Amino acid sequence: MVSRPTVPRPLVAAAALVSVAVLLAGCSVVAPVAPAPLRVLQLNLCNSGMATGCYTGRAVARAAEVIRAETPDVVTLNEICSGDVDTLERVMTDVHAGTVVAAFQPARNGRTGEPYRCVNGQQYGVGVLTHIAAPAGEHEVHAGIYPAQDPADPEQRAWLCVEARTLFFACTTHLAYTSSTLALAQCSHLVGTAIPQLHADGRYQPTVVSGDLNLRQGGTPDVRSCVPADYRHRHDGGVQQFMATADLPIESTRSVSMERTTDHAAFLVTLTLPGQGDPAH
């Protein structure tokens, strides 16, 4: 009988790993990404300076405190000045690693065709702050002015979406307050035309819509007549509404005090962002 030399087990294991590495050379293996929470914070800051009944000049500072305390992944902003986005972007960058996207869309002045302005001269409109965790980071901003507007109101309303590529769309809007019927038409355009067009133009992604719609559940018309059948819906008991595509389970909602710096409490919604596997499948 011929005896064979014994190879130590650690060397066998190492050789096996090398063999596997050689077999996988040139192949791209992507580990699945587990489901993750997605926290969306809606804020109406009443910061134009025009609405004296709710303007305090302190809402942006309070918003910064809430963002630091709650660390949302998405912040939707209504009734803001363009500089407010810059201020709150810095706060989001402080509390998150990865990419923070700041987007702003002004309302349009129906009399001049120019962006609507705050009392301080800055552009007035809506904004979205989006944290995109590493290694993702690619994004695109989409926005528009509604075709239906109140001819007696110079402020023409707008919508805004941030596309976090391969992850989600985050959208906001602030709809007309002079007519609930007009607000409903604008809402229907956003969820029935604008967002479906975004899905058709690129790859479908889970979508959230959060904002002051100036429509209520149980109102006339009822905001639920605008919610697509395959969307989930929550509200703050007032005019701040939240919608999400059916692939985003809603885990919880709650209001957060703005300490009388504006006329709306913050509205925080926590969802589950679905996991992602190999993007080739």
Structure description:
There is one protein chain. This protein has 281 residues and is of the alpha+beta class. Helix content is 23%, strand content 32%. It has four helices and 14 strands. It has helices at residues 9-24, 59-70, 82-95, 180-201, and strands at 36-44, 74-81, 99-106, 108-109, 124-132, 139-145, 155-156, 158-164, 168-173, 207-212, 231-235, 240-245, 250-256, 266-273. A six-stranded mixed sheet has the order 3-5-2-1-14-13, covered by helices on one side. Strands 6-8-9-10-12-11 form a six-stranded mixed sheet, covered by helices on one side. α2 (59-70) packs parallel to α3 (82-95). It is globular. It starts with 8 loop residues before the first helix and ends in an 8-residue tail after the last strand. Residues 1-32 have low confidence and may be disordered.
What is this structure's SSE topology?
Blueprint lengths: L8 H16 L11 E9 L14 H12 L3 E8 H14 L3 E8 L1 E2 L14 E9 L6 E7 L9 E2 L1 E7 L3 E6 L6 H22 L5 E6 L18 E5 L4 E6 L4 E7 L9 E8 L8
Number of strands: 14
Relative strand content: 25-35%
Mean pLDDT: 89
Which regions contain 5 or more consecutive residues with pLDDT less than 50?
1-32
Give the strand order of the largest sheet, numbering strands 1, 2, ... along the chain.
3-5-2-1-14-13
Specify the biggest β-sheet: 6 strands, mixed
> What is the global morphology?
globular
- Compressed to H and E, one letter per element, the order equals HEHEHEEEEEEEHEEEEE
Estimated structural class: alpha+beta
Distance between the termini: 54 Å
Provide the gyration radius in Å: 24 Å
Number of helices: 4
Give the % helix: 10-25%
